[in-house]
Write the structure tokens for this entry.
Amino acid sequence: MINSVLRLFSLLPLPVLHGLGVLLGWLIWLWPGRHQQRVRENLSQSGLIQTHPGLLRQVIQETGKGLLEIAAVWLRPHEKVVRLVRDTPGWANFEAALAAGKGVVVVAPHIGCWEIINLYLASRQPFTAMYKPARKPAVDALMRQGRERGQARLVPTDLSGVKALLSALKRGEAIGVLPDQVATQGDGVWAPFFGRWAYTPTMTVRLIQSTGATPLMVYAERLPWGRGFRIHFDPLEAILPKDRAEAAAALNREVERVARKLPAQYMWSYARYKRPGGAEPLPDEPPQ
């Protein structure tokens, strides 16, 4: 059922999809559940809602746009999806990182249309990213079909997947990681994120430090009126410290930086501050 509905939506022009997405965003907002409370809490924690009038309304609308545009990104022909990318500021940074020969770690936070990043890069060179299977087989098949196109390769979120990422970097290729997910047991540290402790993955730091690969903050800005997307390739503003906890905190600051650039398009509905099973207790002192 979901597949059939998404296929129908994929036929619609992007401006129409985004217009319907605005309506969907409000429906989700009004639906009973934790979504509304979590968005309010996360925005309040960030401090951005106090300085950006109308931000809550924009977040509601951008959330719906992000859900419906998946139909276009996953189900349209690959070449048509790539043409939705209108601009790539900082592309020279990516080319220079590839030319260095040690690989590129594409650090892609949940901002804008992150789903289009791997498809765009995979249209130009090999690109490897981790992938967690969906619970429903039909959704999982749709996800793989949508993401694994061109020169894209999906690898599992286990030791074999980590080895595949390392191998890609050793070949001088690009890999993709999501830095702002809650870490799993054994792969996380408590690090500040918008002034609150968040259990932060260290895998990204380990991949960068063990290979000498170049990290880039990459995010796909959603352009207004359904005009497409602008993918940014930003170098990190600071060198990552050797200490992994400090380096994880530095990466969180980088995510904060780009989230402040496009606050309406960040995924504030994510339960970023939960404590996963098996994680060590939160530090006693407040984050600095």
The beta strands are 85-87, 104-107, 127-131, 152-156, 174-177, 188-193, 196-201, 214-222, 229-235. The first helix runs from residue 2 to 10. The chain is about 45% helix and 15% strand. The chain has a mean pLDDT of 93.
